[in-house]
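Slide 14.
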Amino acid sequence: MKNLLVITVAVLFGLNSYGQETKTTEQILKAACEKAGKENKNVFVKFRASWCGWCKKMDASMNDASTKKYFDDNYVTVNFTVQENPSNKMLETPGAFSYMQTLKADAAGLPFFVILDKKGKVLGDSFVNNQNLGCPAAPDEVVSFISLIKNTSPINTTGLDAISTRFKLNSPQR
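Slide 15: predicted structure.
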């Protein structure tokens, strides 16, 4: 009887999650912009893939204890999964690659990021001199990233220094 209860609960939860519709890029962006408007923030959109080592470094850097509060207090962060291997195509966010194409970033490599205002207008992106910055690591990359953060948020010098210090840890020369 106990096993039957466990199986029944598992089936019910499975049906609930199975029946849920996956949100599209457009729906996710709309909700993020609405939230950003209510919270007086901008939207930080990251394009990533499960196989991408630099994407994982970007996520780790933004979620580090030394930086997370600065990003959370100033941005609504959205992650879009794109460019997955055939066996992981189901992980991709519907419409995200098309959105990358509208940003002229479909061949830019990953991670790619863009910062939007609450209306969805692009304030900046990870292109520096027509090259994708990706996950900032080298000193000049970190300087470019900090400049973008400074121009799209009210993060103070202490916060910018913390973000700079954390992202420099990604440098291969370290």
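Speaker note: The chain has a mean pLDDT of 90.
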